[in-house]
Amino acid sequence: MTDFLIPDTLMLEDRAAHAINAMVGMADKEYGYIPFFNADLLHKPAFMTHGTWDYGSSHGRMIDGLILARHMSGETYGADVEEHYRANLLSFFKEDGMSYRQENPHLDSEPNANLIDQRAVILSLTTWYMESGDPKVKAAADRHVAALKRLAVKERDVWYYPASEYKETGWPSANAIKLRLAPDPAAFCGRLVMPLLKYYELTGSRDAFELCQFFTALIMERSGVFQQDGSFNDSLAYRSGHFHTRIGTLDAIARFGVSTGNAAMIGWVKKSYDWALTKCTNFGWTPGDLHEQAYEHETCSLVDLISTGITLAKSGYVEYWGPVERFLRNHLAESQLLDLDWVEETTDTSMDVHAKKTFYKVAERTRGSFAGYSAPNDFICDVNEGRGHTSDLQLCCLGSGTRGLFMGWSSTVTEMNGTVSINFLLNRGSKWLDVSSYLPHEGKVVLHIRMDIPRLLIRIPEWAGFTKIRFVRESNGAVAEGKGSEESRWVNKHFLVLGEAAAGEKITVTFPLSFRKTLENAVGQTFETDWRGDDVVGITPKGRIKPLYSNRKVYDEAPMRKGEYRRLENEWVW
Fold it and tell me: I need a surface site. Which of 38, 226, 280, 477 has the fewest CB within 10 A?
């Protein structure tokens, strides 16, 4: 890595380093390093609380997020806390191979293997094994996958779980099995497919593959989670069309379709994904569900939207690269909590309740976290509709938000069969080239080529057209110019062909910015949105508590800063 001047614009690896602060800071060191789950930032002073999600779900999310954030940023801060998280996670397993929630003196719950938790558990074990190759981790994951398979109710063509919670004594209700009373299949089965598929790809686990196969069949053919037109079933039995679990299931099935070469499966996902987009804003705000939680956007849902869009784009539906970049630049970036001047915090611990609540340095400890529930224009969701103000931070959204940063970062520059594609116009270093993005200040991207590239493509935003696109190539004192209006310059709708590129070459691509307004609908509420390229630079009405999109500064020339791009020889793909 070399220090030099780079545009002071969005850099996802820097955001990942900020997220590490929160993932480490939310640990409760007085309670075995179990992380707090919720935070109320409106309370004076702010406080954090524990919850039933503290165990497999929270630990799994934190381990996964920390490993990915460190891979992106190179940051080592808080490694001691991460080791506690890893040890805790392994301690939650019982002899049957399932991860169990633990007893807390302040929670009205008993130990059980909650099926929602298991997704985060196998996700973290998979990322952990990918990072370390540790046989101890693989052994735990193998037992876990075998347990997930053993406990599934198996019919001729589908598998499912008959209840949301499993106990050491078995399923809570034998009658539920006989009557096929499978609870929400998306939440308990569909979302499991994504980490199970990755585990299969890493290890060849046949158990993991079979679970993917039969859970996917359940969702697509028998469950009723998705309607014929692709819409979400909004009945109470299906969690009122809960967006996080629905879109997460779409992401999982799209990945399985790619892995198995099933084009029909990918097309099936596209239909539902297109329907989901009609319920979201163009900058990435999603409903929580279709009823009571409709006004509560979860960062988890946005990251599912990002991940599914990337999978579809890589599958040939290239029109999704643009929307995904807008989601990354806007609501994902805005959902990360970096400015906490508005939060009242204290160093007084006299009001703390052991294993339940803390008021200690909440603002400092949560900096870098992501919104648990946000409004389109405000970090805080405190609306008259739905459930009103509930929680401002949720640990699941911190883990998901970090994964969203990784998904954007790892897909900005991709290579296949000698063709290097720049898919997102974001700052990014790589072994092939460095991308310096001057957006949203200027319509300019500068490429510094680091190694010979047989064929180079760069995606141009659809709003930039093609007639006024210019590029200048500089190499060994020679300068050549080109235009986007030249024949045979375009492939895959939006990609400008730059052809061969040589190590040491500098390529500057320029295009006009788009200045426009859109009216964005969010569950019956309308927001007038000002755009500069793919970035929202203003929104009306403005937020009241922690406004989003109201303090973005843009200039005629992009500000510069000293910086460094992280370049890895072996980058992970998730």
Answer: 477
